[in-house]
Design a protein that fits this description.
The chain is an alpha/beta fold. It contains 12 helices and 10 strands. Helix 2 packs across helix 5.
Length: about 300
C-alpha cells in the first residue's frame, strides 16, 4: 500500500520519467566506450536536454574528464559522479521551512504562476502546520480566479482552518489587510496569503504583488516573513524564467517545486538551485497530502541519477 512506502521509494517513483531519460541516456552513451571528447559532448547534450542547465552539465563533464579522460568508463560510474555533483549543488540550498515563533502571526506570502499547484500547496502546508498544533489561517488573495478562491475555501474546510476570502475581481491587497487584522485579533500563529499568478501582463502582476507587500508591511513592517515561490517541474526551463520574474516582483525567500512526477524535466530543480541559490524548502511528487515533503538533496540526487538507496 502507498502509505507504507518510504519517502525515498515515492520520490524514486515520482522521478521515474526524469531518471529514465537521464539514466537510459547514460547507458546508451557509455556502452563499453572510452571517455573522449565525443562521449563528453553527448553526455553534456543529454544533461542539458534533461533541463539540468548548462552550468551543471559542464560541471559533471569536467569532473569526469579530470579523472577518467581516455579511460574505459562504466555507465554506473557516470551516474555516481552525476549524483555527487548534483548533491553538491543542492546541499547548500536544502533548508526546512522554519516558522519563527517570534512573529504572531508568522505571515507567509505564496507566489507563483497559475497552474503550478500553488493553492494546493497552501492547503497541504496548512494541514501540516495544523498537525503540529499551530493555529493557521488562509487568505484567498488570488481574486482574479473564482476557482482559486473556491479551492482555498475547500482546503480550509478540509483542514478545519479559517479562510479570509473576498469576491472575484476584488482587491487582493484588501483581502491581505483584512486577513492580517483578523489573524492578529484571533491569536493566529501562521497566516498564508495566496496571490494571483497570471503572467500575460507581467507589469500588472508585479504592481499587484508590490501593492500586496506594501499593505502587509503597513500592518507588520517585519512581514512577509517568508515569500515562497511555487514552481512546476513540468514546465522545464520555464521554471527558471518564472523564478526571474518573481524575484523582480517580490523578495522571494525560498522555493517549493511541485509535479516532479509529471514529466522527465525534474532536472530543472538543479538548474534553479545552481542559478538562484535560493533555499529549497519542499518538493512534491504527487497529489496526496504526504507527497509534499522537506527537500533532501542526497535522496533527490540519487533518485535523479538512478542509483539505489544504500
Amino acid at each position: 500500500m502507498a502509505e507504507n512506502k518510504s519517502w525515498f521509494q515515492r520520490l524514486k517513483e515520482g522521478l521515474k520519467k526524469s531518471k529514465d531519460a537521464i539514466s537510459g541516456g547514460i547507458s546508451d552513451i557509455f556502452n563499453k566506450r572510452k571517455l573522449d571528447d565525443d562521449t563528453l559532448e553527448e553526455l553534456e547534450d543529454l544533461l542539458i536536454s534533461a533541463d539540468l542547465g548548462l552550468k551543471t552539465a559542464a560541471r559533471v563533464t569536467e569532473t569526469l574528464a579530470k579523472n577518467k579522460y581516455d579511460k574505459e568508463i562504466e555507465a554506473d560510474e557516470v551516474r555516481q559522479v552525476l549524483a555527487e555533483e548534483v548533491s553538491k549543488i543542492l546541499t547548500p540550498v536544502a533548508e526546512p521551512l522554519n516558522i519563527e515563533s517570534g512573529h504572531k502571526p508568522h505571515i507567509i506570502l505564496m507566489v507563483g504562476v497559475n497552474g503550478t499547484g500553488k493553492t494546493t500547496t497552501i492547503g497541504k502546508l496548512a494541514k501540516k502546520f495544523k498537525a503540529q498544533g499551530k493555529r493557521v489561517m488562509l487568505a484567498a488573495g488570488d481574486t482574479f480566479r473564482a476557482a482559486a478562491i473556491q479551492q482555498l475555501v475547500v482546503w480550509g474546510e478540509r483542514s478545519d482552518v479559517p479562510v479570509v476570502a473576498g469576491r472575484e475581481g476584488g482587491d487582493a491587497a484588501s483581502v491581505a489587510f483584512e486577513a492580517i487584522e483578523r489573524a492578529q485579533n484571533e491569536n493566529i500563529d501562521i497566516l498564508m496569503i495566496d496571490t494571483a499568478g497570471r503572467l500575460q501582463n507581467k507589469a500588472e502582476l508585479m504592481e499587484e504583488l508590490k501593492k500586496v507587500v506594501r499593505i502587509i508591511k503597513k500592518k507588520d513592517e517585519t512581514a512577509p516573513h517568508n515569500t515562497l515561490l511555487v514552481l512546476d517541474a513540468t514546465t522545464g526551463q520555464n521554471a527558471v524564467n518564472q523564478c526571474e520574474v518573481f524575484l523582480d516582483a517580490a523578495d522571494v525567500s525560498g522555493l517549493i517545486m511541485t509535479k516532479l512526477d509529471g514529466s522527465a524535466r525534474g532536472g530543472v530543480l538543479v538548474a534553479c538551485a545552481e542559478k538562484f541559490q535560493l533555499p529549497i524548502h519542499a518538493i512534491g511528487v504527487g497529489e496526496g497530502i504526504d507527497d509534499l515533503q522537506p527537500f533532501d538533496p542526497n535522496e533527490f540526487a540519487k533518485s535523479l541519477a538512478g542509483l539505489s538507496d544504500d
